[in-house]
Amino acid sequence: MTDKYTDKDDGFAGLDALFDTARAAPAPLSEDMLDRLTRDALDVQAGFAASPAAPPRRGRLAGWLAAIGGWPAMATLATAGVAGLWIGAMPPAFVETLGLGSATASDTAEDDLYLVDPLPGFVVSLTMGEGS
Amino acid sequence: MPFDDLSSLDDDALLVLYANGDPMAARVLTGRLAPVVMAHAYRLTGNRTEAEDVTQEALLRLWKIAPEWRQGEAKVTTWLYRVTANLVTDGLRRRRGGSVDLDAIPEPEDDRPGADQVMQDRARMDALNAALMTLPDRQRQAVVLRHIEGLTNPEIAEIMDLGVEAVESLTARGKRGLAKVLEWQKKNLGYQDDD
């Protein structure tokens, strides 16, 4: 006598046969259900295309940079700033001859006379006040 | 790309194409994965309507994570088996009205009054499904994955977050439980003694 449900050397033979049958059986999936699932897949996929990645949000610094004309303008501004700093720290000779240099701009008395203001502003104002 | 060409691709590659907007990939993947998920959900729930709900939700979750899917990290089907089992478990918990220690459910007894009554007038698959439903959830899941879906013990261990030995124990106990229940149905199922 062979009972297929007894635990023999090869296991539960009857049960294994049932498992084989179950494995071969088609899934209880109707055509309608498959259509619905396909529509779900396509709907979600359409959402990917409808919502492309948002452009990166511009920060305040980026906004300011764009307002002044972008990086070319920034480079020009930086160059001008460095040049101004350079002139201020190490003024060239012609800048000093314009009277913008230090008090030791001239070396001779003639130059001092030439550079002196013959009619300072406050004298002019005094003169005009007397006449009125 | 034509349908036939896509059919030769594996699930990972198809999922990348799907995420890139290929509608044919959506159709091929659905046709390939939906029966797998539905069959598994039906075997775990024993209820067609509930299995359909679980299938729809599991696949929706797959579609939504497709753009972030990391190729080669996990098999798509392994991920789906896990999600399907979790959804089924969540459904069972809701019906039972709270949290349940699934492993605390006792093994089925061979003289349950309802089990043999349910199986008397059913065909083999109905009998097997009914018997499966008498098993504790984790045993049922392990038995279905091992003996019907045909997965290896390491694959089942990954899906169920268990060690391989625990899986072996679950499948062995589950199989014994099924045999006990089905013993009552031998004649109806056509598995009679040979003598």
Automatic annotation (TrEMBL), chain A:
Domain of life from the UniProt record: Bacteria
Ranges annotated as spanning the membrane: 61-87
Keywords annotated in UniProt: Membrane, Transmembrane, Transmembrane helix
Protein name: Dihydroorotate dehydrogenase
From TrEMBL, chain B:
Keyword Heme (UniProt): no
RNA polymerase sigma-70 region domain mapped to chain residues: 32-96
UniProt record, GO biological process: DNA-templated transcription initiation
One Pfam assignment: Sigma70_r4_2
Record-linked InterPro entries: RNA_pol_sigma-70-like, RNA_pol_sigma-70_dom, RNA_pol_sigma70_r2, RNA_pol_sigma70_r4_t2, RNA_pol_sigma_r2, RNA_pol_sigma_r3/r4-like, WH-like_DNA-bd_sf
RNA polymerase sigma factor 70 region 4 type domain mapped to chain residues: 127-176
Protein name (database record): RNA polymerase, sigma subunit, ECF family
Similarity remark: Belongs to the sigma-70 factor family. ECF subfamily.
Molecular functions per Gene Ontology: DNA binding; sigma factor activity
Keyword vocabulary terms for this entry: DNA-binding, Sigma factor, Transcription, Transcription regulation
CDD domains per UniProt: Sigma70_r4
NCBIfam families (UniProt xref): PRK12524.1, sigma70-ECF
